[in-house]
# Entry
Amino acid sequence: MNEMLPLLTYCVLMSSTPGPNNMMMVACGAHHGYRRTLPAILGINAGGAVQTFATCMGLGALFTAWPALHVALKLAGTLYLLVLAWRLVGSPVAQDRPPEQVSFAQAAMFQAVNPKSWVKAVTIASVFMPVQLGVVQGALLVSLVGAVVGFPCISMWALFGVGIGRVLSSPVRRRVFNAIMAASLAVLALMLMR
# Structure
């Protein structure tokens, strides 16, 4: 347990702090409610677990060997966040037409271009892999811990969005909320390119 505590703490911090996944979940929770956002939450956790497992199995070494790959993923993640921001600004605000929901598959695949997810996966692989277990068992363990810890943390952001959604009763309020969330995603995207 003493060896697991630092991993648990790291996973809580990485999953609870603002980032691309959490900003998406606030917007999804506000517009669609928790139940309809649940597939995206599960997709983030599944995609992150696969990413962490693959990184622990050696994928992270590719970034060291080919730094251009890291730059390309960073650029793709930035562009994706800007597209999300653009779609959020242009989304309809009428009561009967909420913005498109993020699916399980979209959320899972987004982890491949989410720089924060890569930082988390590479850090877990390089710092928290248990040396007393075999590579596969250790990779499975830390991937599972990341997913289990991530679920309530990411759910917290979606529920925060649900709470915000309750005050978005008028089209003007929804439009302002969409603009704030889009600006947050755009700022986050630009920060990722530093």
In short: Residues 61 and 161 are 37 Å apart (CA to CA). The chain has one domain: 4-192. The mean pLDDT is 84. The first helix runs from residue 4 to 16.
